Amino acid sequence: MVMLGTNDLLNQPYPDPVEVANNMESFIKDVMSVHSECTCIIVAPPYMGFPLGHPMNTYQKANEKLGVLYREISDKYSARFIDTAGWRPELFYDGIHLSEKGNEQFGEYISEALNNLGIGTE
Known about the structure:
The protein has 122 residues and is mainly alpha-helical. It has helices spanning 6-10, 17-34, 57-76, 100-116; strands at residues 41-44, 80-83. A two-stranded parallel sheet has the order 1-2.
């Protein structure tokens, strides 16, 4: 299970979700070339707390686009996919990082998503 993208976007002066998705695709392709029996799960990063009008909202929009692009990659490589964008776990004041409560919420959500995929979390 791999969740990449938020830091990749934030490290770009102009967020490019296609570039980040291409990096994810390369990563998945490499993993599957070595471990073809592996069940890969691509996880689209959670929502950032930058509302419309906020200077960082372009990063939020790029982050949302990752979900669409990651779903395409998961389909292409027969990987599983979890889109966390709608979960809205509590964020730290910076609008990016999960708070302590947000981490607990995210853990509960991811456990439920894995169960929905038929992957036990015992």
